Amino acid sequence: MKCIVGLGNPGKKYEMTRHNVGFLAIDRLADKHGIKLDEAKFKALIGTGRINGERVVLVKPLTYMNLSGESVRPILDYYKIEIDDLLVIYDDLDMVPGKLRFRPKGSAGGHNGIKSLIQHLGTQDFKRLKLGIGRPPHPIKVVDWVLMNYRKEDMPELNDTLDQAVSAATDFVDTEWIALMNRYN
């Protein structure tokens, strides 16, 4: 079984913010594969189903970004999912909007959601799909930028990014890791 987690913050207020691009990707992935995100447990919204014939659990932690690990660790334990079968989708300030990149492991790089996952999983060796949101233009502060809603003019690029993320996450389920990185990076 695979576990695909999208990071974000719960609630209408954050729904269309840059920091929630992981949630947006999970929603689109669930829609594409007919998986309902309708179970609330382990401080998360969860949906189980099949992608490319493989059992998957899709997860949107409802703990707020900075505590994401509190939700993900118990889910992996409950479903008996190995760290190697986990994919985390989240925003990346250091990549231009529209760009995505798979990474096999790494530090938190200043991302508090990833920092929480590393703390609760006890390792930084888990797979990631980073979606570029870019750095804020001067004089906007980073904290304001990530919590700022996407503008109407950003929507075509956002939709393209989410479509790419859905394709990449779908392929994650049954594609060898090196081939996956070569295809999407």
UniProtKB/TrEMBL annotation:
Any one GO molecular function term: peptidyl-tRNA hydrolase activity
Main localization, broad class: cytoplasm
Top-level taxon: Bacteria
Keyword Glycosyltransferase recorded: no
Site (Stabilizes the basic form of H active site to accept a proton): 91
Record-linked Pfam families: Pept_tRNA_hydro
Catalyzed reactions: an N-acyl-L-alpha-aminoacyl-tRNA + H2O = an N-acyl-L-amino acid + a tRNA + H(+)
Compartment list: Cytoplasm
Positions of tRNA binding: 14, 64, 66, 112
UniProt keywords, alphabetically: Cytoplasm, Hydrolase, RNA-binding, tRNA-binding
Entry's EC annotation: 3.1.1.29
Active site: 19
Annotated site (Discriminates between blocked and unblocked aminoacyl-tRNA): 9
Keyword Cytoplasm assigned: yes
Complex formation: Monomer.
Family assignment from sequence similarity: Belongs to the PTH family.
PANTHER family (alphabetical): PEPTIDYL-TRNA HYDROLASE
Physiological role: Hydrolyzes ribosome-free peptidyl-tRNAs (with 1 or more amino acids incorporated), which drop off the ribosome during protein synthesis, or as a result of ribosome stalling. Catalyzes the release of premature peptidyl moieties from peptidyl-tRNA molecules trapped in stalled 50S ribosomal subunits, and thus maintains levels of free tRNAs and 50S ribosomes.
Record-given protein name: Peptidyl-tRNA hydrolase
Organism, scientific name: Exiguobacterium mexicanum
